[in-house]
Specification:
mainly alpha, 6 helices
Length: about 160
């Protein structure tokens, strides 16, 4: 069962985003792009599969594809769109992941050839997932999009301090 955007709104702490249907109605194009982005990300297993299952080369290829997709979607939006900074932040997190993986491998083949680097890869992957989670949550809340369970794994944790 997908995580409803209203539930995600309750998880957000200190993130400023308009609530869908309350005071702001996003332009149709922004909504369409946000829905396409969410549907695309829901199918990217790098964002939610167990790290032990992930193959570094495939992860790098997936992040490159995500960045290409986001760049294309950003190009379809007005520069003033409130969606642009969110998509750029996700794209930037991908760039940081790629930079870290490249730094770790030091010109060698990826982690397969150097098992001692697996921890660094897992750390970079975890940071990538953690960095995009708040942006996915903001997209869901801001554009009224439910998040599939797999992708919901990267969302910020619920605040249990009640």
């Amino acid at each position: 069962m997908p995580v409803r955007f209203a539930e995600i709104a309750n998880r957000l702490n200190g993130i400023s985003c308009p609530l869908f249907g309350v005071q702001w109605t996003p332009p149709v194009l922004d909504v369409q792009v946000a829905r396409r982005v969410m549907a695309y990300l829901e199918d990217r297993r790098i964002l939610y599969n167990a790290m032990a299952w992930e193959e570094p080369e495939h992860c790098v290829a997936s992040v490159l594809e995500i960045r290409r997709f986001l760049t294309n979607e950003i190009g379809q939006l007005q520069s003033s769109s409130e969606l642009v900074p969110r998509l750029k932040a996700i794209r930037s997190a991908g760039r940081k992941f790629l930079d870290e993986v490249q730094r770790q491998r030091g010109g060698r083949r990826l982690i397969h050839a150097h098992p001692s680097g697996a921890f660094g890869f897992d750390l970079a992957l975890g940071e990538f997932r953690g960095a995009i989670g708040p942006h996915i949550a903001a997209l869901a809340v801001g554009y009224g999009i439910d998040v599939e369970d797999d992708l919901a794994r990267v969302l910020p944790a619920a605040d249990d301090s009640d």
